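Hey,
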Amino acid sequence: HCISSAASDVYKRQELARLLQEHADLDASIEALGCMPAPDQLMIVRLKRKKLALRDDIVKIQDCLLPDIIA
């Protein structure tokens, strides 16, 4: 839910930063696994799914912090 207050905005920004870092870390892990001589495809698929779920969470928080302005 997008209830806005100074404290909740601070929390959301901290959570957003954490999720963005985790997303970047997963991206690096996926890249590293893909460069291995015999990459673990199952692990890559799992990491990609987790990365997509993180992206959904990131978008939800961004939408709360920056709501659409309908003119």
